[in-house]
């Protein structure tokens, strides 16, 4: 991803269309969701070098929040909405210039009219069944979603920051494909989610 801004207000990064990425997939190459809400957390996975398909996504990671906010646009440039990805607060590794997080499965979709839809409740339930999260951790994730909803209803930052009007400068180049990775870290992430 390309860093747009990184300061006390948070990390803002751009995932441009066509950006190369490493992603976990099932051993037969299918997306992990094809395994179902429980097996998607227990089935064997491998890493696949791919590219980001579709329009770009602007991701805003506010400091101190267990979520990031993703901005989506349609192919014609029309703003489609905000996606609140519940996740562990980002941890920085300044030496490698990387940040890391763990997805908490449950998500929220906010339409341009600010109506809110819950997403992937079945996957959170599956994650508990699979042992990825305890029932208590799942309750905290749901509580975090309610906290995010309060921020949305109050229209706090980053929602109020007008990132939906941002666009990437045309001169920005795509990041290069990853050529190295930390196998132990990636293996740990594949098994934890």
From TrEMBL:
The keyword Hydrolase applies. Keywords: Hydrolase. GO terms for molecular function: hydrolase activity. Gene3D superfamilies: FomD-like. Residues 41-155 form the DUF402 domain. It comes from the Bacteria. Pfam families: DUF402. PANTHER family: PTHR39159, UPF0374 PROTEIN YGAC. This is DUF402 domain-containing protein. It comes from Kribbella soli. The lineage of its organism: Bacteria, Bacillati, Actinomycetota, Actinomycetes, Propionibacteriales.
């Amino acid at each position: 991803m390309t860093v747009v801004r990184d300061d006390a207000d948070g990390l803002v990064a751009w995932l441009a269309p066509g950006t190369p990425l490493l992603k976990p997939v099932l051993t037969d190459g299918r997306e992990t969701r094809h395994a179902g809400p429980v097996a998607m957390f227990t089935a064997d996975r491998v890493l696949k070098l791919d590219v980001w398909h579709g329009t770009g996504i602007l991701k805003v990671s506010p400091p101190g929040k267990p979520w990031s906010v993703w901005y989506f646009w349609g192919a014609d440039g029309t703003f489609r909405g905000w996606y609140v990805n519940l996740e562990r607060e980002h941890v920085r590794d300044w030496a490698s210039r990387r940040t890391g997080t763990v997805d908490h499965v449950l998500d929220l979709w906010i339409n341009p009219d600010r109506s809110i839809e819950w997403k992937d409740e079945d996957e959170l339930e599956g994650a508990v069944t699979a042992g990825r999260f305890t029932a208590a951790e799942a309750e905290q994730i749901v509580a975090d979603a309610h906290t995010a909803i309060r921020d949305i209803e109050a229209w706090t930052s980053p929602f109020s920051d007008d990132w939906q009007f941002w666009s990437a400068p045309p001169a920005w180049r795509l990041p290069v494909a990853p050529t190295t990775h930390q196998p132990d870290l990636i293996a740990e992430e594949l098994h934890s989610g």
